[in-house]
Amino acid sequence: MLFTFVFAVASVLTPAVLAAGDFRDFKYTCILHDGVFSAPRTANMSCKGNDGEYRDTNLDLDRCVTNDNAKLTCAPQIDQGGYAGSCTECTMSHTWTGDGAPGTLCCKCPSLDGTQTTKSCIDLNLCIGNDDGKLNC
C-alpha cells in the first residue's frame, strides 16, 4: 500500500512566524520527497529548521496515529500507534480535497470486532509537527 501526497507548492512554502524551538505545523514548513510515502508508511521530507535551512527527515506515521475502533486518532503516547497493521487504502492530501483540509490522512479501518470497515480521516497536524527541521509525533 502506497500513500500519496498531493502537494500544493503555495501551501507548503507559506511562511510561518514562530519563535525558535516551537513545534511547528509540518504542512507549512516541510516538503515531501518524491511525492510518495515509502515503506509504506514513512514520510520522507525536508523540513525547515529554526535557522531557515531545510533538513532531510523521516517519520514512521504508525508511531503517531492509531486505529481506535475504526477511527483514526493521534496515538496517546509516542510509539503507541499502530493504524498501519489494520487500516488499508490510506491516502493523504496536502491540498483542499473532498477528504478534508491539507495534511489529512484517510484510511479504511476495521472496528474492534471486525464486523465493519469505515473510512476515517484525521488531520495529521494534530499528531505530528516540525521540531527544528525534524518530524516528530
Automatic annotation (TrEMBL):
<protein>
    <recommendedName>
        <fullName>Cyanovirin-N domain-containing protein</fullName>
    </recommendedName>
</protein>
<feature type="signal peptide">
    <location>
        <begin position="1"/>
        <end position="19"/>
    </location>
</feature>
<dbReference type="InterPro" id="IPR036673">
    <property type="entry name" value="Cyanovirin-N_sf"/>
</dbReference>
<dbReference type="InterPro" id="IPR011058">
    <property type="entry name" value="Cyanovirin-N"/>
</dbReference>
<keyword id="KW-0732">Signal</keyword>
<feature type="domain" description="Cyanovirin-N">
    <location>
        <begin position="25"/>
        <end position="137"/>
    </location>
</feature>
<dbReference type="Pfam" id="PF08881">
    <property type="entry name" value="CVNH"/>
</dbReference>
